[in-house]
């Protein structure tokens, strides 16, 4: 166990190759045809990286869809570009590191790292082309609606004067041109920053070109709205037009927009760390200088610039990728937020207060004592349920202790504020802060230190495992006894993402769950070796074995002629042994319905292998993030089956290398609600895609389909005139 400490470990100088995980050998099964195909795993598994690229194509399809509002289409295009950034930093970066260290381990479908990099290089251009065409189409639509994106050279003289005055007043003082010569070394290029590379000549010596770099600042708006017109110019174009002002008396002979992506695939040895906090802080410093895995190029007016950059950055042709516009495509989301066009955005949604929590006469603890409360965000308010639970607990004089896990909690976190208040009021407060949450490490380090300074007991979890579980436990003194209340969820304790991620949560005081949650926190904070959990399912303790057990149980029910069904909704899938178990269940005619938003390495509809297995992917205005697992378990009434919500996907890392939680749903009303949610998603046509046996996808929606889509239907059902919304609560508080 690693506790928060003020110690600092010595700087780690040398990177070592991450330990490669050994895959369990596939056991032979009599009369199971899957065995015949394991020698050629490409026949039964699809490639993870290809699955991810296919997912991003579905995101791009949302940007193409004319049924989506115009500004939301810009957002989807921006998201597709941001997704690619993360893909290169994490996935391509990891593959390149494997190649550099000579790792030859193959993927589930039998490809080496070199083969996968070649496949990515081959597949990416089609996506780039689609982004480029789509960005031009959307610019035309914007122009038609009154927002005309133009280049600086297209402006009239009076318009140029406005932009030039704006440049001199608001942009020029921020810029820092950096030249390269014997007295000025090549500057550091930060991750995902856009820069202009400039080729210069000295009029007094025009034989040798000079290089200079101008970083595009992100501290100001990337779009400049030309006063008195409908014209918009991007910041890059304005800076490029005024390069001579940055290099007076020099001759600007060429320029190119470029952008780098650096490897974010980290390599850590936690077991050897004296202080995990210090190790993560050092890792963050090293990440700034990680190797470049991609160099994006705009239009290059001078080939010398490209050659110079490749030489200075020590890159090869395989590392180069074209930019689709003369600006970062993620800037489209900034433009969408700058345009006050409500009719071209999704209608505003205010989450409703869960019905069980609307009575102001009873406390949230009394409401939970009445019955378990299943929450579905963002259709139901996160603020009026989960935030309220922790906020009320922090102020309640009868609450003795609060224990929480924090993975990604965001800025200005109300949870951190509540925990600090609770500690200051003398309550026992324990918080596990996961320092290794990728791209949130710096924020989590800050919150860990703030909590510790306030007297909260801060721990960082189990050595070698990332704690991804989303759990909270409240211990309260009541008239007859001490009672525990719990929240177990599928998403983060993050107030911002709760408004546009779909997630589920359970509020309960059921002792079958809360008693084991006490043991779980002892496992996280102490040295508990408890293994025999009867109700909670936890990774890496028993989740993998339980999932295989439940899948096998459905197979046995099907063979015996009893009702069998497996339904699951989650984000990604690539755990081979779970996949093989599902194939076996399918061969015994178990209906298997998987709703997998992202990549999925299992293949449906394969003759003799997965004929009863179906996979679909749902995308929409909200990011599908909830994880639900259902097993019918031989019952005639589907509500008598086993329901679970979880923090984990069916991925190797979730089941074997992370601390994850899965909670059973026992309450009949909660089961009815969850069953209804699953059926709505499975029957959706407007927002969903079906996976084919070749791992490609096709829309379920057909021409003329008038359905509104599952997310819109869930909003419609939630928005009953009898329900309070978050906006209603805010009005009441003001009054």
UniProtKB/TrEMBL annotation:
ATP binds at residues 83, 501, 597, 625. Residues 1-28 are annotated as: Disordered. Residues 1-11 have a biased composition (Basic residues). The keyword Glycoprotein does not apply. Signal peptide: none annotated. Residues 364-528, 536-709 form the Polyphosphate kinase C-terminal domain. Residues 159-333 form the Polyphosphate kinase middle domain. GO terms for molecular function: ATP binding; metal ion binding; polyphosphate kinase activity. Keywords: ATP-binding, Kinase, Magnesium, Metal-binding, Nucleotide-binding, Phosphoprotein, Transferase. Its cofactor is Mg(2+). GO terms for biological process: polyphosphate biosynthetic process. It comes from the Bacteria. Residues 45-149 form the Polyphosphate kinase N-terminal domain. It catalyses: [phosphate](n) + ATP = [phosphate](n+1) + ADP. Its EC number is 2.7.4.1. An intermediate of this reaction is the autophosphorylated ppk in which a phosphate is covalently linked to a histidine residue through a N-P bond. One of its GO terms (cellular component) is polyphosphate kinase complex. HAMAP family: Polyphosphate_kinase. Catalyzes the reversible transfer of the terminal phosphate of ATP to form a long-chain polyphosphate (polyP). Belongs to the polyphosphate kinase 1 (PPK1) family. NCBIfam families: poly_P_kin, PRK05443.1-1, PRK05443.1-2, PRK05443.2-2. This is Polyphosphate kinase. It comes from Pseudobdellovibrio exovorus JSS. The lineage of its organism: Bacteria, Pseudomonadati, Bdellovibrionota, Bdellovibrionia, Bdellovibrionales. The gene is ppk.
